[in-house]
Description:
Layout: H1 3-22, E1 30-38, E2 44-52, H2 55-79, E3 87-92, H3 94-114
Parallel strand pairs: 2-3
Antiparallel strand pairs: 1-2
Amino acid sequence: MNDRMRRVNGVLRETIAEEVRDLKDPRIGFVTITGVEAAPDLRNAKVYYSVLGDEETAVETAKALERAAPHIQEGIGSQVRLKYMPKLRFVVDPSIAQGALIDELLANKERSEHEPPGSS
């Protein structure tokens, strides 16, 4: 990825985060925009996010973000000058779940190392 795309993705991430914060939809949980990956032609962009809460909160947040995408795109258009305004697609950031899994595996390994032999 070149420097220009890295800067565009950064600006989009910050702007989208602001727009999501300003949404008044009660179905949207505590969301963090973790990254944006815009296509080189700027026609589409994947918006990676994490949401704090249970599975139901995550599902409701995903639906609400998809419905709010046109409004968020409009907000971006008023703040950022781009040749094309990318169509946003919200995707749960897999690195958050992967990090939690790694933490759990390390904690289990540490516990098993501290157990006396034969105590299972």
